[in-house]
C-alpha cells in the first residue's frame, strides 16, 4: 500500500491532532466501518492492503477451489510486484539513495508452521516467492543481499532491471533536488544555477517548487507525471503489500513484500522481511501484517504482538489497536512526533474475524493533488470483494515531515 512516510497536510495542523483523541472509542465512526467485528467471520477469506484489491478475485477463487493458503496470499502480492506502475513493491519500486532497487519480503505457512524471508534483494522482482523458496528449499529462515539473489537465480528466478524509467527519473529528481552540498545536478556554469537557498523557511516553498519543476522538466518527466514525482521526492513513501489467507478448513498463512522506504540508505532493511514485525502467522490463532513505518513497527514487533494479543482473547481490532498504542508509548504519546508517523495493520483471526487498524485515519494529499483525504483501507474477499476503511487509533490525518508552510495558491496551481 503506498503510504508516504511523511504525509503532507496543506492546511496546516489538523484540529484532531489535538491531540490524542482515540478514535476507536468513537462509536459513531465505527458503525461506518465493518472491521470491528469480534464474532467469527466467513471462511474462506483473504485480506490484503488496498493495493491488492484488484488481485483478490483470482486468489479467492484459487483458495475456494482448494488452493494452499500461502499460495493464495502470494497470488495477491504478485500483482503489485509485477506491476511497473506500483512504485512501492517489486518491479518499478523506488530505489535506494544510490538508485538501486532493494526488495524485502517474508512469508509464513500456518499448516506446516514454517517461515521464509529475504532482505535487500536486487534484480529479482518476485521476492515474496523467493521467501517461499527459502522456506521450502533451505534449512534457514532468512537470506539477505547477494546471497539471497544468487539463491533465487539458482532456483530459476530471472535477473532483471527493476528500475523503470519513471522510477529512475524520480530518483534523479530526488538526487538533484538535494544536491546543494554535492556534485549532483548542474553546477555554477549552468545558466539557471542559483546560490543555495538562504531565505527564511516560509519563503523557501516557492523556490523549492520552482526548482523541482525545472529539474523534472529537464529530466524529461512527462507533465502529467510531474506532480506525482515531486510528491515522492518531497515525501519518500514506505509502500508495501501484505496479504493473509484462511481456507474453509481453518488453515491460515500470510506474506508481506516491499521495495521499502524510498531513497533509503543502501542495506537498510525495514519491517517487511522481519518475521514477527512485517508478518506473523500462528496456525492456532491467526495472522497479521503491516504497512507503514518499518522502523516503528520493528520496535513493537507489531505482527507478533497482535497475534499474541488475539491468543490472549483480544478481538482482531483490540489486538491491533494495542500494538498501535505501543508505538504511541514509544514516543511518550508526544503528538508532535506521532503526527509524522503512520502505520496500518491487517489482521485475520483463525475463525474468519478480521480488522484493519491504523495509527491515523489516513493522510492528506499534496495541495496540488485531489484535495480529498486519502483514507487507509483494508481489502477483503470472503465471497464478496470490498475495501473497508481501517479503524484509526487517532482521529485525523498524518502529516509530512518536515512540515512545509501552506504553499501560495499560484505555485500550487502550477503543479495541478
Ligand atoms: N513497511 C515497509 C518499510 O518500512 O520498509
Outline the structure in words.
The chain has 416 residues and is of the alpha+beta class. The protein has one domain (2-162, 237-398): 4-Layer Sandwich (Glutamine Phosphoribosylpyrophosphate, subunit 1, domain 1), CATH 3.60.20. 32% of the residues lie in helices and 19% in strands. It has 13 helices and 16 strands. An eight-stranded mixed β-sheet has the order 4-3-2-6-5-1-13-14. A five-stranded mixed β-sheet has the order 7-8-9-10-15, covered by helices on one side. The chain is globular and about 70 Å long.
Topology:
Elements: H1 27-30, E1 45-49, H2 56-64, H3 69-82, E2 103-109, E3 114-121, H4 127-137, E4 142-144, H5 145-154, H6 165-177, H7 201-218, H8 223-234, E5 240-246, E6 252-258, E7 279-282, E8 286-292, H9 294-300, H10 302-311, H11 316-330, H12 335-338, E9 343-349, E10 354-358, E11 362-363, E12 374-375, E13 377-381, E14 385-389, E15 391-392, E16 397-398, H13 409-414
Parallel strand pairs: 3-4, 10-15, 11-16
Antiparallel strand pairs: 1-5, 1-13, 2-3, 2-6, 5-6, 7-8, 8-9, 9-10, 11-12, 13-14
Helix pairs in contact: 2-3, 6-7, 6-8, 7-8, 9-11, 10-11
Glycine binds next to strand 8.
